[in-house]
Amino acid sequence: MKLKAAAATIALALFAGAFATEAKADWIVEHEGLFAWWRATTTVGKTTLEWGPASDLSGTVVAYTLSKSPGYAFASDTPKTVLYTGTATSFSLGTPAWEGEGDTYYLKTEVLSGGYQDSQEMRMYLQGHALKNVQLSYDSLRLNISDTVTVSLLSAESGGAEPVSYDATNLAFLSSDRFGNFTSSNPAVATVSATGKVTAVAGGKAVVTFTSWRGYSASVAVQVAKSYNPAYTANAALPAMLDQLKGRDNRLEGTIVSSLPIKAVTVKVFNGSKVERSITKKVAKGPTSYDLYNIRWAFPFKKLSLGAKTLKVYVKSAKGNALAGSTTFKVVKSVPKSKRAALAVQWALKRVGDKYSMAKRYTLGYADCSSMVQWAYKQVGVTIPSVSISQAQWVKTKKKSIKVDINTFKAGDLLFYDFPKERNNIKYVNHVDMYDGHGNIITASSSWNMVFQVGYGYNGTPILAGRIT
């Protein structure tokens, strides 16, 4: 399932009649009935039920209903029906209404035709997620009176024994108020709504804080000008930057929005109060928005010293300069071996959206399958060959191959394929994917002309899998 992360945990009791059994699993719960098997999967705010044959049910019509009430009546709910044609199928249950932690939903599934009688009910507990390590879309805001800016969740991590990382794409499925609440330290200066909409009321300073339901928080410093100053209306939404190895590149991403035409953009990295590196890009034709993608690889990240850094983005307009946004990261000497694979996945996810090209695989914004996984592991200090067949041979030679089984895969594992004939021989390997640890692969596809994340199985069954670290 595509998570880059899952945002709700399911604990399920599956029962028919008076009998109930608990299935202990975090993300996927399965149940095999008399005539069919059922599997429920929850991603961010969305539950999907898959149904497959335990016997031949071709031509059978199945009704399923999602309800807030137990029992088989479901009088207030309208069943939705699907025609079962003899192969496994799936259908979305949509996004249940959120009413806080511990919501209980009941899913009733009935065989309506085809000579069988089968009716089962599934009880699902959708638990509010315990987010921690929350990062917001802004570190600071400079506003004029009456300006409004929406602060959103940019990244976070789940609580629990096995934390899961989320990015803005995952978190966008649910509004911020479903994970916690926003408050303002000084509503007389700036108010904030339940969904993070900040409104400048009067000149002065305030701190807007998001606190997750489990007590983890992140804040945005808000400064409202006492008199109108258009230079204060430029803001940059900066995605979280990963800590980088010394001598490696980093990914500068984000979009600047300004109420005045942008004449130039300056990016500075501070080591404490000292500017360590800086670059300025003049902007032609004065747009009011600017994508930092345009200068991300021009910035001299490789020359940064070790330690904590603050990156700030400044905008120049006809009315002066403004600090549009800032974020923090670290430059480290090495990555612990135990963290390399998971961090390689995070770096690979940074390439999602890059164009596919074998010819331009090492240039800005382009990658093919093998250069993408090679680059991701290089970012954490691991060197692997540059071509998929060489990578497969390296895995075999270094005795890093593992069983090809989705149940044993871990984040960072490499999966090798021999398209299109599947001759099950590594000398024909011509494609590689990276497993993300949550049921998905990160793949660079010539068919789709881009790097993207998709469910495992999209490219078929790999003939070889390797655990790099």
Structure, described:
By secondary structure, the protein is mostly beta strands. It has four domains: 9-127, Immunoglobulins (Immunoglobulin-like, Sandwich); 130-228, Immunoglobulin-like, CATH 2.60.40; 231-333, Immunoglobulin-like; 337-466, endopeptidase domain like (from Nostoc punctiforme) (endopeptidase fold (from Nostoc punctiforme), Alpha-Beta Complex), CATH 3.90.1720.10. Helices cover 8% and strands 43% of the residues. It has four helices and 36 strands. It has a six-stranded antiparallel sheet, with no helix packed on it. Helix 2 packs across helix 3 (369-378). The longest helix is centred in the C-terminal third of the chain and has 13 residues, at 337-349. The chain is elongated, with a radius of gyration of 25 Å. Residues 1-38, 40-47, 53-57, 71-81, 84-89, 93-103 and 124-129 have low confidence and may be disordered.
What is the strand arrangement across the widest sheet? 2-1-10-9-6-7
Please give the CATH class of the largest domain: Alpha Beta
Mean pLDDT: 74
Number of strands: 36
Largest sheet: 6 strands, antiparallel
Taken from the alpha-carbon principal axes, the silhouette is elongated
CATH superfamily of the largest domain: endopeptidase domain like (from Nostoc punctiforme)
Number of helices: 4
Percent of residues in beta strands?
35-45%
Pick out the low-confidence regions.
1-38, 40-47, 53-57, 71-81, 84-89, 93-103, 124-129
Q: What is the CATH architecture descriptor of the largest domain? A: Alpha-Beta Complex
Radius of gyration: 25 Å
End-to-end C-alpha gap:
24 Å
Q: How many domains, in number, for the residues?
A: 4
CATH fold field value of the largest domain:
endopeptidase fold (from Nostoc punctiforme)
Based on secondary structure, the structural category is mainly beta
Q: Please bin the fraction of helical residues.
A: under 10%
